[in-house]
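Reopening: structure tokens for the iron/sulfur cluster complex, inputs below.
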Amino acid sequence: MSDAPDSRPRILARADERGVVVEVEDRLYLRLDAAGRWIAFGEGGAMFRRAVDGRVLRPGAEGFETLSDAEADAVDGWVVRRAGEVVEALAAVPAGDLVLEGRADALHDALARAACGAVERPADTRRRYDAAYPEPVPILPPHRYRDLVVQPATGCPNHACAFCAFYRDRPFRVLDDEAFAAHLEAVRDLFREALAERDGIFLGSASALSIPDDVLVRRLVAVRDAFGVPRRGVASFHDPDRGRLRTPADWARLVAEGLVEATLGLETGLADLRREQGKSADVDRVVSTAAGLKEGGMAVSVTVLVGLGGEERADAHRRATVATLARMPLERADRIYLSPLAGALPAERLREEVDRWRRALADCSGARVGDYRIERFAWFA
Ligand code: SF4
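Re-run output (same inputs, fresh job):
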């Protein structure tokens, strides 16, 4: 950034009410939210992302690594210095060397705030996140990664699946009216200007749709009052094995309050394998739940675990699960997520198995099929 005038860098920038992106040739990448808090930073081959919970992450071989507090502070200081240098460079840059898409005032405001170091530090975000959220957000469906998550409940009604990395031994608990109102207030305060970036809402945690209907309707109304109607609607995970089986009319009542989709964990269509893993052997119930959701006007995503049951049951698991998925009235608006179970098969076999599943599903389901690499999830700011 301290180049002589004849080697001044070309700067590309994009700025609007959601935030700012600045690229200085291929040397520097900086993304800020509208408040000037950095959310992504890259320089010299290193790349860092900031999570909603304040952690600073860097890409690793298997997902993202969390930096230590000292490392996070060092990256944060680095960003403040670079933001200051960009401010200086912009002041000196000839018109032709800046390519700006969007609003110059938004660009200068966000950069000035980042450069003076007066914006929230990652450690402060961590403290406020811990106060706002009753529990972590360990996973979301891939197409909802940019949602604003609110937690009307914590834990999982089942909390006993053998393969579950997130909710085993975390019993289901529904927040009462007062606690949920306080949670929404704290979430609003945590995100502030960055709310403009979120165009969908996700009800956490593992199965918010297990909340009884009357309470759930109140929660949907409270979410709408707090954040308005998001463009991509409200979504949630749902454990189909427990609780009352809702009718299409029950689902339609929730749709009328803004709910648009649910993600269900089928995992396998083999009843015995499902039971062995700590889920119900009642595969038909998952099919009925998906059908009821569709008839009630919702989109459905279904997750399956490729590799579950090992080599011995690979064919039976695939055939039974594909046949079960084929019985669900899924269409283009719906999704099937293939989640490879790490260690269940050798890596090459697991990849081959995913390909087989894709080919089999292409012939018998109208849903889109995608990968679900849970180990790569991070809820980014
Ligand atoms: S139902 Fe889902 S979230 Fe709950 S324990 Fe089983 S896999 Fe985990």
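The first strand starts at residue 11 and ends at 16. Residues 5-124 form one domain. Marking as resolved unless the reporter disagrees.
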